Amino acid sequence: MGADTAASRGISSGTGKTGEKTRTESWGRGFRAPGLQRFRDVDSLDLWNSGAFRYHQNVASTSDLLNILNAGINAVRPTFLFPPILSEDRAEIASWKSPSTRRFLLALGKASVQSAKSILAETACEDYFILTPYENPDQTIKVHFGSHPIPDEQSYQSTLELVDWLQKLPAGSSLLVILSGGSSALCVLPLPSVGLKAKMKVNDQLIRSGASIQEINAVRKHLSGVKGGQLAKHAWNLETVVLVISDVIGDDLSSIGSGPFYPDPTTFLDARNILEKYDLWTQIPRDAAETIEAGVAGSIPETPKPGSTHPVHRIIASNDIARKAAAERAGTLGYSVRYFEQPFKEDVEKVANSILMEIEQSSTGTALIFGGEITIRVSGDGTGGRNQHLALLMTERLFGKDAVFGAAGTDGIDGTSQAAGAWTDGQTLRKASGMESFRKAVQNCDSYNYFHAIGQNIVTGPTGTNVMDLYVALL
Which residues, other chains included, contact 304 with Cβ-Cβ below 8 Å and sequence gap of 6+? Predict the structure, then answer.
């Protein structure tokens, strides 16, 4: 079969309707489907001879889909972000770059390891502290581990070590903090009235409830001694600057990583109202409920509030940057691009319907670029995540249509699975044995195994970054 290129499909070349250009970046690294080797260049992959695509009739579109998703992720990788940032002459990092300053580095979250390595490759510091999920092991750098998305005993022990490390730093030193998504679960120090197991239980209940990340973090902050600006009190005598890789819609600094160095606008009353909203107030552990009630009554001090002194924060990467890079790549591949500026944050069912509507209003040769962080109410005991579940719902909606759709987490981890996401098209429902297996997968939230059976998971491994999710549809 001949090559199926943008030109052969009659799609005009050009950048499409992407708006402002982003910086160029290396691309094509990391994506694979089960049964495939990791590959460096999407265009060089022999898709026709790979088992993962043995049923697929539109291989070029699938290759383009992975290419576009990969471009978005690569644009927010620390190895791409930090060299130009450290070469800038901006006031917020001037003291940290000064050779006369005692410099220290703190990196928290899913992007911590790659961020620290990128910084240390450009400049030296006296000491550093890295707190990362277990999925980010690295033998070349000293790290501290914790669990994500549910904290564990190791998260707690690592946080105790972090607090001790901060308290011992010399007064007047310069502390550069890299904050990224995942920090909420990794940086855990429950209030004295709350047991670690209780906090873990509440976290799990909130994640399964369909609550937004802002709502989840509002509760987390009011059971914690380090979230909501409270970690900053251990660095009060340092010159601290926080560079942020945002995994939150709207780039709300009080929500990213639960804002350990940033004032908290939410209250104990907000936390109780959120738990009541999702019918969890009578279900959470007793010590957690009693702590929140004590806070509402004023017996426990509130978190630091807006207007209080806090370190300088700067957003250096976000979902918007990733979406723009994905849109630019789609344009260079010859697609007419529809770029959606407003990220999705609604329930997965509503998002699937919205995406289908946009697909039905688009013409052949169009790439639709979306992003966000949607919610899902978990049922059953299957394996999957919000991205694969979205792809699963799109499987039914795209049946018989000439379109391909993919959803992937920019951190490379989707829910409880080993995949970043999945892709689907108009033939997937037939390939996966029809409606019975589809309905079973939806009811049991077993999207990973549904796509794994036909080789349509997107697997990257941990990417070293985290700016929520990307969704791409190609016609």
Answer: 228, 229, 230, 232, 263, 264, 310
Span 66-81, pLDDT tens digits: 999 999 999 999 999 9
pLDDT confidence tier of residue 130, bands split at 50, 70 and 90: very high
CA dihedral 277, 282, 284, 289 (to 10 degrees): 90
Phi, psi of 241 (to 5 degrees): -130, 135
For residue 226, give Cα distances in angstroms to 44, 285, 298, 322, 453: 48, 20, 19, 30, 43
d(CA 181, CA 218): 15
Burial of residue 102 (CB within 10 Å: 0-12, 13-18, 19+) is middle
Find, among 407, 373, 413, 409, the residue nearest to 136 by Cα.
413
- pLDDT tens profile 244-266: 999 999 999 999 999 999 999 99
Cβ burial 398-427 (10 Å sphere, 16+ → b, else e): bbebebbbbbbbbbbbbbebebbbbbbbbb
Judging by beta carbons within 10 Å of its beta carbon (0-12, 13-18, 19+), is residue 261 exposed, middle or buried?
buried
Q: Pick from 102, 34, 43: which is nearest to 460 by CA? A: 34
Please state, in angstroms and rounded to a whole number, the distance separating the CA atoms of residues 133 and 357. Answer: 37
